[in-house]
Amino acid sequence: xxxxxxxxxxxxxxxxxxxxxxxxxxxxxxxxxxxxxxxxxxxxxxxxxxxxxxxxxxxxxxxxxxxxxxxxxxxxxxxxxxxxxxxxxxxxxxxxxxxxxxxxxxxxxxxxxxxxxxxxxxxxxxxxxxxxxxxxxxxxxxxxxxxxxxxxxxxxxxxxxxxxxxxxxxxxxxxxxxxxxxxxxxxxxxxxxxxxxxxxxxxxxxxxxxx
Length: 211
Known about the structure:
By secondary structure, the chain is an alpha/beta fold. It has a single domain (2-210), classed as TIM Barrel (Alpha-Beta Barrel). The protein has eleven helices and eight strands. It has an eight-stranded parallel beta barrel, surrounded by seven helices. β6 (124-127), α8 (144-155) and β7 (160-163) form a beta-alpha-beta unit. The protein starts with a helix and ends with a helix.
C-alpha cells in the first residue's frame, strides 16, 4: 500500500478543535481542497463519538480526496474513511492492520527512534514536530531539518510527511530532507483565506517538482 499513498500525502490538512473555533469543518476542507490539499486528517479531540462519526461521513461524502481519522480506527472503519492516523499511545499499528480491510491506510506519528520501532508496519509516518507548535501540546521538542532527516532515514523508504508548525517557506527544506509532503494545521486553518493559503503551499510544492 505504501507505493500508493504518495499522491495524497503531498499536502494534508489536519483539523484542530481550537482553530476551528466552532466552525463547520466541511466548507473549510472544501476551500483547502480547492487550493490543492490532497488529503484531510480529521483530528477533533473534543468531539463525542457520534459527532466525530457524523463529521467524518460528511467529509467522506463531499470531498474528492482521501479522509483519514486521527486516533480512532473504530470510527474510521465505521465511517468508511480511507484510513487512520495513530499516535504513539494509540492502538498499535499491527493490531489495526489485523482488523482493517485491504487498502485501509494507516499512518503513524514518529518523533524519534523509539517511536520508529513501533511504527514499521505503517503506510506512512507523520514526522514532527518540525518546529514548536501550539496545536499539539504533547508533540515534544522541535526536530528541525536535522531531526527530520534522521527520522526519514530511520524509515528506510517509508513515506514521511512533516508536521508541526510547517510554513510555506519550509517546503523546500522538507523535500530536500526526504519528506514526501507536508501536513498543515494552523498554516491553513488560521489563514484568513484558506484556499489562497493552500495555493501558496501548492505552488511551492510544484516548484520543487518542476525544478
